[in-house]
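Researcher: We're teaching a course module on how sequence relates to structure. For the next exercise, students receive a sequence and then see the predicted structure as tokens, so they can try to spot secondary structure elements on their own. Here is the exercise chain.
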Amino acid sequence: MTSNEIPKDLHELMLLYAADAIDPVDSQAVEEWLASGDPEARAALEEARLVVMSLLESLEPVTPPAEMWERLELKMLKTSKASSNKQTVKSEATKPARTDRPAPSNHNVANSVPSRPRVSVLSDSTKPVTGETAGSRLTRFPYWRSAVLAASVAAALSVGSYLLSRATFDSKLARFDEAQSELLLKQQAAVEQQCGVLIEQSQQLTEQAEALTQQTQSISGTINVIQQALGEQEKRLAEQSVLIQSMEGRIRASDQTIRLVSAPGVQTVEVAGTKEMPGAVGKLLWDAEAKSLTFSANNLQALPAGKTYELWFVTDPAGPVSLGTFKLETGEGENAGENAGISVGRAIISTRAPLNLTGIQAVAVSLEPISDVARTGPTGPIVMLAKMQ
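Model: And here is the predicted structure for the students to work with:
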């Protein structure tokens, strides 16, 4: 019989078997289980014996009233004497003496006892006992006492089994609660640890974000400084570009002036300012054969916004012919001083006149609006003027 084949009732019957309070059928089933050699059966028996011993030790002894035992002893004494006398007379009268009958063995004593009548030994009746001997009555008294004890043990076992089951259940429940509490505490500790890690990581990320913000601000400041420096550099480059262009113009004008001055047949004309700009003075170098000229002026007034100077030849009969526009030079270079970047009233222009130009009567400078449209004659005031010979 395997452990899976063992009915649960055998474990419960083992308590009654250990208390000697089991019926024959159930006792046979328990004994068959023990005879099978199953270690679980032997363990169940040992456990049941321990439970029975514990229960018997826990029961408080009960002392019966003294008069009860006196009445019982008196009744047993009377019954024993009457039965003994009657048995002696009957045996001598009806049965021959036999010497070859073997003595019954101890283990067959119980089987040789006739069945008991259902008469209480505690009864007050003084009638003679029939159908059985006084010896058999006295022999069966321990069985009655055992039955009472077995019933008491069975009842105690039932209560003890309930208490044991309840104690086992309470113990398991307590262990379960303890395990649950321990698990919850571990989970709570793990969650707290994770929260601590997350908080620490959040603090680190915050610190990194602040460091990145500071770096970004520093980089932005550096970029602003670089942009300002680049702006200033671009401004200086633009100014230098203007200066270079101005210097290139001067060089060309100087070359033209040198060429014109050294060339034969070059006419020099002094040009003065009109009442619109009386302080202005200028000079024109004109090569009629080559149709080239250089005009330089000083003490010109600063140009208003959106205005420019324009040089003209006045001819007859074609009328005014534009020789180009020009602006004032600015103070640049190491000797510019306080006039650096400011128009200083000086201008120079070198150009060529149309090859078919004839009949030149005068040279003039007018103040004109800046425009991409070619003009056929001065529209603004004449600020400088000179006659040609």
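Model: If you want an answer key for the exercise: Residues 97-148, 332-342 have pLDDT under 50 and may be disordered. Residues 319 and 377 are 8 Å apart (CA to CA).
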